[in-house]
Fold this protein.
Amino acid sequence: MNNKFKIAIVGNKDSILGFKALGLDTYNANDATEATAVLYEIKKKEVVDDERLGEARPAYAVIFIIEDLAMKISEEDYKNLSEDALPAIVPVPSPKGTSGYGLKRIGKMVERAVGSDIFGDK
Amino acid sequence: MAKLNVKPTRMELLNLKRRLKSANRGHKLLKDKQDGLMQKFMEIIREAKTMRREVESKLGGAFKNFMFASSMMHPAMLETALLYPSATTELEVETKNVMSVHIPYFKIKQEGDILNYGYLQTSAELDTALKSFQDVFLLLIKLAEIEKQAERLAVELETTRRRVNALEYKMIPDIKETLKFISMKLAEQERSTIVGVMAIKAMIEAQEEA
């Protein structure tokens, strides 16, 4: 089976330009509503490996998203977007520097799994 | 705890006993699953945390390099230089089954040169910037893998925890209470029949003597 997936990055133009050179697909989004729309669109994209079988799989395995935008996406949209095995949606810090959102996200996962954030920084 | 809404019959008693048995077995299995998941989750989440810190600091450096590069060049030039990348990046995904959760593993396939532009109109800083992006990128993919694994496990852990708790604190006590209620009721009925029979027997004996 062909097992190739693409990688996408969503963010404003200045932040994502550098990633473009690496061969990632870049999607421009300037605010959270735009980003949400773009994410849904990316998620919908599928590849059909074998026409006869008609099996489709997501085209993208990983979608990076600039933190500033990721923070403002509503919980419900985020849940819909990330419920499947693929793609993985990963927030990355913007050129302005990290806001701690990524670590907070990990804390949330712990909270969800264990019941309380046991690694949380006091 | 609420007693279940069933009739106090021997039939129900047997049914409930069977249900209690399977509930106990289910609870034990789910508890084992939860423990297994938790072990894996802790392993992954620790790694994710250190990884996240590392990536964030390194990516900051890469962005700084890129800022330098873009300030040295005309924006339009920069954009043209990066407009048609010759490098392609693809991922191969494999999934592994941990306690019936499929977690992804990524393998990266990169082809082509990232420095794909004329050297005349671009600055040397751009080369450094892109190289540092390239370095961080491998870490980023690793981070994506680990975070997705953690996320999948977290979701599964949550549902398993809920199931375990529902069985432990609701279903099993409820069944136990109902069982007790039914057996009490049946015993009471039995006693009442015996007393009834004894009373009738005494009455008959009294009549015969008279």
